[in-house]
Design a protein that fits this description.
Length: about 200
């Protein structure tokens, strides 16, 4: 989750999962998965062998942009759209997990719900820009609940993290000291509205 949360929060999540028995193989990747007599035998790029009963691959989402690119549509990580879901090509729109808005792919339901109304207006000949409120992402990992309101991509600033008895509060402030994002962990997730109200 390096693109979403500061390192200290990532380490706290890692520690909570480790306490539940998770072990980590970092700075390496799975090269080969072989079927073993019972289960699987994984060969890592580091050369290490891991025996497993079950393999789950959860490597994230990547929009398939080839079709859009072939049609001359500008793409970055996703299909680039403006707030009206319009691409750079007339009459081509994108919505949902494949769309990239202001440098971000937002692969969850809330942006679709806000964007779809603007898209409907555009298709009915009433060009409209969607109004996106702050849409914090809730990560429902029972080991450590997280509420994430990321700052704009590329924004200059600094994360400051404070630990409480059973939570973490990370605030991202820009160079002028204004709050531009936050990550709340554990019991601090209850502070969500308080920090949302302070976002400029
Ligand atoms: C396990 C999981 C849990 C999630 N939990 C949450 C959650 O708790 N909260 C939340 O907000 N979001 C959640 N999401 C994300 C949410 O499901 C997606 O943001 C949402 O479904 C995106 O909608 P979409 O229409 O952009 O894409 P999709 O729902 O992926 O729909 C795209 C459709 O296009 C079809 N398709 C693809 N290629 C072609 C083609 N060439 N021709 C025709 N059809 C094609 C696909 O089969 C698919 O039906 C979760 C996602 C996953 C995978």
């Amino acid at each position: 989750m390096q693109g979403l949360i500061p390192q200290q929060v990532g380490e706290a999540l890692q520690a909570k999962l480790s306490a539940q028995g998770v072990s980590w193989q970092l700075q390496t990747s799975v090269e080969i998965v072989d079927q073993a007599a019972s289960g699987y035998r994984l060969t890592l790029t580091s050369g290490e062998i891991v025996e497993a009963d079950l393999v789950i691959s959860a490597v994230g989402l990547k929009p398939r942009t080839e079709l859009a690119q072939t049609a001359g549509v500008d793409c970055g990580r996703g299909i680039k759209v403006n707030g009206g879901l319009r691409t750079n090509v007339a009459d081509i729109y994108a919505l949902g997990d494949c769309a990239e808005l202001q440098g971000k792919v937002l692969p969850y339901i809330a942006p679709i719900n806000f964007g779809v109304r603007a898209l409907a207006d555009c298709l009915l000949g009433r060009p409209t820009m969607a109004q996106y409120p702050h849409m914090p992402v809730v990560v429902k990992t029972p080991a450590l609940l997280l509420t994430i309101q990321s700052p704009e991509v590329g924004l200059e600033g600094e994360w400051q993290t404070e630990a409480t008895d059973d939570g973490l509060r990370s605030l991202f402030r820009d160079s002028a000291g204004m709050l531009k994002g936050f990550v709340l962990a554990g019991s601090c997730t209850a502070e969500r509205q308080q920090w949302l109200d302070q976002l400029i």
